[in-house]
Specification:
The complex is a heterodimer of chains A (about 110) and B (about 120). With about 110 residues, chain A is mainly beta. Chain A has strands spanning about 5, 10-15, 20-25, 35-40, 45-50, 55, 65-70, 70-75, 85-90, 100, 105. The N and C termini of chain B lie far apart (about 40 Å). The chains are: A mainly beta (about 110), B mainly beta (about 120).
Chain lengths: ~110, ~120
């Protein structure tokens, strides 16, 4: 199975700052089927990005995804207070689907 | 608007079978897509359990394949998860989800249900 490694584990930032989250795959992700999720305490993960760079409907344009093959990035251009959460990447190009261990974006 | 809702026992005894139902509203499950299950536990993070297509093809995580069965009932617009021979390691929040482009896709999730395995 494909192992996804996210870095950093925790990102301490202030509102208005830029967040850059990394997701590295142990082998190439088929068709760049890489998704990003946001999760807040007590809630289900919320789907933000699919196919590495396409935003879901209703997701603000401060969220952007990039990358291909084995290296992917989620960028939040200017953090809003509601963006402080845990972010996961998932590859769904091959089964079994696999998730990264998460990056927590916390208030500095 | 599509809505997914998990239901089932919140407590299961070790060695017994965990059975969950996902009820879908706002979309007919036999119209397409993949219907999957994902779980989240503190120790193992998010884990894809498997999925079933709208025509009943199943895709299971090899790590759970020997214990998992998924099925669907299009007349009730529901799909199901059975996980046999559970242990404490199966304690988790279980989510059902809909995926569009591949068996492991999960673009839309239910709210999740906590299942605890304990005697």
């Amino acid at each position: 199975e494909i192992v996804l490694t996210q870095s950093p584990g925790t990102l301490s930032l202030s509102p208005g700052e830029r967040a850059t989250l990394s997701c590295r795959a142990s082998q190439s992700v088929a068709r760049n089927y890489l998704a990003w999720f946001q999760q807040k305490p007590g809630q289900a993960p919320r789907h933000l990005i699919y196919e590495a760079s396409s935003r879901d409907a209703g997701i603000p344009d401060r969220f952007s995804g990039s990358g291909s093959g084995t290296d992917f990035t989620l960028t939040i251009s200017s953090l809003e207070p509601e963006d402080f959460a845990v972010y996961y990447c998932q590859q769904y190009g091959t089964t079994p689907g696999t998730f990264g261990q998460g990056t927590k974006v916390e208030f500095k | 608007q599509t809505h997914l809702q998990e239901s089932g026992p919140g407590l299961v005894k070790p060695s017994e079978t965990l059975s969950l139902t996902c009820t879908v509203s706002g979309y007919s499950i036999n119209s397409g897509h993949f219907w999957g299950w994902i779980r989240q536990s503190p120790g193992k993070g998010l884990e894809w359990i498997g999925s079933i297509s709208h025509i009943g093809n199943t895709y299971y995580n090899p790590s759970l394949k020997s214990r998992v069965t998924m099925s669907l009932d299009t007349s009730r617009n529901q799909f199901f998860l059975n996980l046999r021979s559970v242990t404490a390691a199966d304690t988790a929040v279980y989510y059902c989800a809909r995926g569009a482009s591949s068996p492991a896709a999960a673009g839309f999730w239910g709210q999740g249900t906590l299942v605890t395995v304990s005697s």
